[in-house]
């Protein structure tokens, strides 16, 4: 092995094990992402200065919403993976759809599941769909960061082959070709998690939550950009490979996000911030 290559750390697939009870890293990432996201959402709702008047929903409502968004993430993520990434296999093996412990989740499917959860919950509770979307996407990078780190720990979704002289190139133990590759999971963790969270947090600091739909649009746009950038370093799914013009499925699914995100930002700017109750126009 060239001396510049980094040995892939020997992680155990199970994070916590107590007798017959075991939690794998990927499940732990989902659990921690949801819990930390919930706590962050509550902290944002407690700060009235971030909104134009009182927050658009109560702490009790955001507590109730956690179950809805969790179901949206899981059901949407699995459905998206089945439809977008491996439909022929699941048509032949329908029982495998329910084997979540074997992996296979799609961000784009999970995002659509969250959209359904947001719209349904907002309608039933008479909450602004855009404001609930803002809160949901403001905390989403926490889960994305932890999810990508779990991908790295599991040694899955590795990057494209690269020159062995790249100081941080790695050989992943599950890679049948045993080539030095980009640790693209860490690239995506940095862009989709740390970078995206930081940008949204700065926007919130400067009053973006006062314009419903602004954070939602920024999340969709920036995620689309970072996902497309990350796909340039990530090995395409083996069952799909490269598609039209060298694009990957992740790139194709992210292109509509750029359009939708930009539209939401423009509409939020044109709409402006709602006036506090009792304000004189």
TrEMBL record:
EC number(s) of the enzyme?
A: 2.5.1.145
Transferase found in the keyword field:
yes
Alphabetical UniProt keywords: Cell membrane, Membrane, Transferase, Transmembrane, Transmembrane helix
Which PROSITE patterns does the entry link to?
Answer: LGT
An annotated Gene Ontology molecular function: phosphatidylglycerol-prolipoprotein diacylglyceryl transferase activity
Q: Which of this chain's residues are annotated to bind a 1,2-diacyl-sn-glycero-3-phospho-(1'-sn-glycerol)?
A: 148
Query: What InterPro entries does the record tag this protein with?
Result: Lgt
Location(s), subcellular: Cell membrane
Question: What top-level branch of life does the organism fall under?
Answer: Bacteria
Membrane-spanning ranges: 25-45, 65-85, 105-123, 135-153, 186-206, 213-230, 242-269
Q: How does it sit in the membrane?
A: Multi-pass membrane protein
Q: In which pathway does it act?
A: Protein modification; lipoprotein biosynthesis (diacylglyceryl transfer)
A Pfam family reported for this protein in Swiss-Prot or TrEMBL: LGT
> What functional role does this protein have?
Catalyzes the transfer of the diacylglyceryl group from phosphatidylglycerol to the sulfhydryl group of the N-terminal cysteine of a prolipoprotein, the first step in the formation of mature lipoproteins.
The similarity comment for this entry is: Belongs to the Lgt family.
Q: What is this protein called?
A: Phosphatidylglycerol--prolipoprotein diacylglyceryl transferase
Biological source species: Bradyrhizobium japonicum
Give the gene name.
lgt
